[in-house]
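Cross-posted from the bioinformatics board.
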Amino acid sequence: MGMTTAQKIFAAHLVDEPFAGTKVLGIDVVMCHEITTPIAIADLMARGKDRVFDNTKIKAVIDHVTPSKDSKTATQAKMLRDWARRHDIKDFFDIGANGVCHALFPEKGFIRPGNTVIMGDSHTCTHGAFGAFAAGVGTTDLEVGILKGVCAFREPKTIRINLNGTLPKGVYAKDAILRVIGELTVNGATDRVIEFGGPIVDAMTMESRMTLCNMAIEAGGTSGICAPDRVTVDYLWPFISDSFASKEAAVAEYSKWASDADAEYDKVIDLDLSDLAPLCTFGYKPDQVKSIDEMAGQPVDQVYLGSCTNGRLEDLRVAAQILKGKKIAPTVRGILSPATPQIYKDAVAEGLIQIFMDAGFCVTNPTCGACLGMSNGVLAEGEVCASTTNRNFMGRMGKGGMVHLLSPATAAASAIEGKLADPRKYL
Amino acid sequence: MKTFGGPALFLDRSDINTDEIIPAKYLTEITKEDLKPYLLEDLKLPGFDPKSDKTFGAGAVVTRANFGCGSSREHAPWVFEVNGINVVIAQSFARIFRQNMFNCGMAAIELSPEKIDQLFSYAGAADATIEVDVANTTLTIKGGGREESMQFEISPFDKALVLAGGWVDYADSKY
């Protein structure tokens, strides 16, 4: 019997199996941010275990609230900063160099096919786009990861999702993943890895694959995974060109992590997305999804474009294409947070930031801020936000606020009209 | 060995998420104790008052499916821990929340929908109390003059974490 990508990664990283069904894995990359890591650092210090297992395998960033908004967040940032200096963490990203973790770390080339990756952040599943097993964990797992370089998981089962056909105009990876979550429901993939494949995924950029994998957790999934291929190698080439004689050699090497043709899946779901319309959530759970046709016309107070889901350059390009030469509705606040400094710079160079600002958007520094209601765009009671983020829980972006999840294109169209709007008429 | 359970708090809804258990704005706290006043602050549920003595006097939570979905924040188990709640009983849990509970040496117990319904039949009793014996995997509920016990299943690894007092000590002694 063949193996899935996740099974292969588990087999290659197995350190211990203390009990049947529990696998303790060696971890290749432990990622840290300033919200969930300082308390792990404080606990390690209190236990007299202020050590790190490998300062080259730990990556850290201040991203959730940056620049710090008050004394408490300044203290959190300082704790992470002091710890990174104390242990000589080479890859530490502070003000001026910091961006949203799940956009920044891939951009720096930290993730390779076949890696194991953990972080104290539920959207760590994003990194599965590279053919890695990447999972969000709590602070205690993070603490053990920092200290020992290991983490325990149950043996994963895999749900295979085949995205067939071709995406129609105006329909993007965000719409595809909302469709998948609608299919699986919010806990349909609990204790499962969601493996994305099929012609639509094969044709996707790494940015789009990251958008897909980013929201695997919204169906309860431990991780999302895409098979490494030529697209993966093209993305990673600046970082791996010294290690391989050619891109073909890299593709051949990395393809060993793809699932075998006869791998056993928990479930296989085929979805033809050729007729998919742009989608939008309507409630407080990410599986409450409707077509934009049904949602259009509902007023919004704020449009937010950014986050680890959709703050990448291709997202900004799509939205700018729609916004070019237009003004957003006077009743709407438009906020753009490019996800990393590089994306910001590229967006300036391409003239995208000019388009956003001319349209009336406020452009912030790279940060997670608004997505989880921590800073930079919190909603007031009763306000509604059309957002390219990943979670629409009640009060997520501020107590009493409502969030509609949608693609960057649909967000841009909604900003122009001041209400949920179909992007296809602007393309 | 420490005891698990106490006065039962019934939360009759599925998909209760980590934002409802502890809103993100409190993630700026850097000690577990500081989270204490904010237990379930944003949970809107008919008949549930997050600020009541019943909420803060609870020792065990009984709820429905997919409890703890959303964020990886361990602040969710911690806000229970610092308020004396060390066991949550549900039809199912989100993976990260469930692991966080065991990693902290607390118990996340999954029961069939029928058994969960049985527990909810005690929801009207003001004195409903749950005791959990992790070593013997038995759970007892008392209230309104009634009492019953049931068995539950827990993975050997999760049990070992609870008995070891959590994952840090377990891992540091073993790896």
